[in-house]
Every structure is written in C-alpha cells, then in structure tokens.
Amino acid sequence: MRSIMFFLTLIVFFFQGFSQQKAGNSFKIVFYNVENLFDTIDDPLKTDNDFLPTSKVPWNSQRYHQKLMHTATVIKAIDSLNLPAVVGLAEVENAAALQDLIMSSPLRAGKYQAILEEGLDPRGIDVALIYRPEVMKYAGHHSYPSATSFKTRSLLHVKLVNAKKDTFHIIVNHWKSRSGGAVETEAKRIENAEVIRHLTDSLFAINLQTHIVVVGDLNDEPTDKSVSEVLGAKNTGEKISPNSLYNLMSSLLKNGEGTLYYKDWDLFDQIIVSGNLLLRKPNKGPVISRPYAYIFKPDWILYKNKNGEMVPNRTANGNAYFGGYSDHLPVYTIVKNGPAILDD
C-alpha cells in the first residue's frame, strides 16, 4: 500500500511540475467586451438607469451575480488549466464591479489584480485590465483620454513584465460606437485611432524593440480606414517589420469570422501587436506563433437565432432580459516566452 501511495504522489508532483512548466513557457492575453457589467447601485453621475432594480427590465442582485458568474466562467474556460495571464475588458461600470468579478469563484484561484480608471463616457462604462501577478509583474499604468473633441471612454496603458523580464505595453481601448451610423461616426473612431497611433509611435521612439499589444472593441473592421490606415495595423501576411503594428485578426476576417452579430458578422474585437512579437528569435525574446489569434466560441455561450445561425447569447437589451453571457465573443492570443518555439 505504501509503495502505491508513493507512486501516486510521484505522479501528482510530475503533473504539477508539467503544469507549472507549461504556464512558464507560454501565457494567454485575452480581450473581452463583457456587455454592460453594471452593479445595482444608482450612480447619480452616470447614465445607469437601465441597470437598476427599478429599471424597465429590472437589474437586481440575482441577475448581477449571474452576470459575474457567467463572465468569470467564460474567462476561466479560455485557459482552464492555468487561467489567462492578462485580460483586457470593456464595458465595466466601476472598480467595485471589477473587484466582484475577480473574487467570483471561477477566478479567485488566479489571484488577479485589477486596474480600472474612471473615464468620461456618458453611460459610465470603462475599459479595465486584470492580470495574474504570478505570471506578469506590474510595472505601472496610465489612463488617457481617447479623444479630445468628444466625451468618451479613456484608454488604459498598462506595463507588465513576464517571467523572462520582457516588458509588455498592453493598451486597452473601446472606440466610439456606430450608433447614429457607421459613416456619420467614422471621424470619431479615426480620432480614437490617432490617439493610439501617437502613443505607439512614442513607445517605438523610445525603443524600436518595445513589445506592444493593443486590444479592444474598435467598432470598425481590421480593413477599415481607422484601423488599417490611421493606426497603421498591417495584415499579418505582409513582410514583418519589428517596429510596425500587425493585426492578428486579419486572417480570421479573411475567413469570414466575427465577434459580434448584427444582421451579419462583424469583427470589431481585435488584437494588434508590434512586429517584434511575430519574429522568431533563435536565442531569446517572446513570440506569437501561428495561428496568431483565436475567437473563443463554444456552443454554450451561443444561441441559435431565427435564421438558424449560432450567434452570441447576450445578457439583455433595453426591452428584454435574456440571461446570456455577452453580445461579443472574447478573443485571445498565446505568447511563448523565449527561446522561441518554432512551428512544425
């Protein structure tokens, strides 16, 4: 009996070591527009009237806690073994709701740290970032207005350092929506893109090899002017330059995939990185290997619409409560710590 127990103990230690080794060799960066993660408390400084117990579609404690559990369950499922190292989020009301999220049972084991700075969005939704300090160390953050000509969500710039001492600049955004018309609102998203471009150019001016990861709901496609021309996010099929930006979603767009559905699929949720993260380095440095990015879309966060298509199962709109997850699908990429592991 003792020999069997000793053997079983060895197996446990082996798999624990294997799991830790895998966690050290690579980590996931996720972006998820969680669709209106509001608490139930009235904030007189925000337009949160659709998310109160007295709202037309009541937003009560039971529904709020279900929203937290749904959101956390999705994030955990993206990396059920180790949990994602970094998660950029959109449409979070405040730091209290973000804290409730990371303390929910699916995420508690990750010991996430949370960053959210209040912006000027009239609805009161903000971008945020959570990270696992066991995988990525905090090195500072700033929040900037993402436009000057109109009130909107701020961008969040967070510096994190991986196990190999590589610094990552994670920039979380949520650009102006298309409400009022895509053409009519295009200039505002172009302004959002100009702000991000100024920031990334400044980072490259300091260090041509800086590791940049731009994530967010851009409310434009990768091929639209704001993203491809103004921000300058190139197709990953082009020749890779270390100090240029590349849109990891370009091949997914070409395949007709999307992250939200309104009459048809749109690919607004994107991950854009500096070229140095796509170049294989024989001796050192982090790298993102093909496939560069993924859309997380298990059947359990989808529902079949009237046309028979499986689309995101959202939480609610102004007229009805559905009890789903989000009207957006999360996206993620896998970063491998150096030395680089080449594709087969």
Sum this structure up briefly.
The chain has 344 residues and is of the alpha+beta class. The chain is built from 6 helices and 17 strands.
Could you please describe the fold and organization of this structure?
This protein is of the alpha+beta class. The protein has a single domain, classed as Deoxyribonuclease I, Chain A, CATH 3.60.10.10. The protein is 25% helix and 27% strand. It contains six helices and 17 strands. It has helices at 2-25, 61-78, 95-102, 182-206, 225-230, 250-254, and strands at 26-37, 86-92, 113-116, 126-131, 137-145, 154-161, 167-174, 211-217, 233-235, 245-247, 260-262, 264-266, 269-274, 294-295, 302-304, 310-312, 331-336. It has a seven-stranded mixed β-sheet. Strand 7, helix 4 (182-206) and strand 8 (211-217) form a beta-alpha-beta unit.
CATH architecture: 4-Layer Sandwich
The proportion of strand residues reads 25-35%
Look up the CATH topology.
Deoxyribonuclease I, Chain A
Q: Count structural domains.
A: 1
- Number of DSSP helices? 6
Please tell me what the overall shape is. globular
Supply the CATH superfamily name.
Answer: Endonuclease/exonuclease/phosphatase
- CATH class category: Alpha Beta
* Strand ordering within the main sheet: 5-6-7-8-13-10-9
**Averaged pLDDT, please?**
90
> Main beta sheet, described?
7 strands, mixed
Stretches with pLDDT under 50, minimum 5 residues: 1-23, 340-344
| Amount of helix | 25-40%
Number of strands: 17
* Gyration radius from CA atoms, angstroms: 20 Å
The helix/strand order is HEHEHEEEEEHEHEEHEEEEEEE
Q: Report, as a whole number of angstroms, the end-to-end distance.
A: 44 Å
Q: Report the structural category.
A: alpha+beta
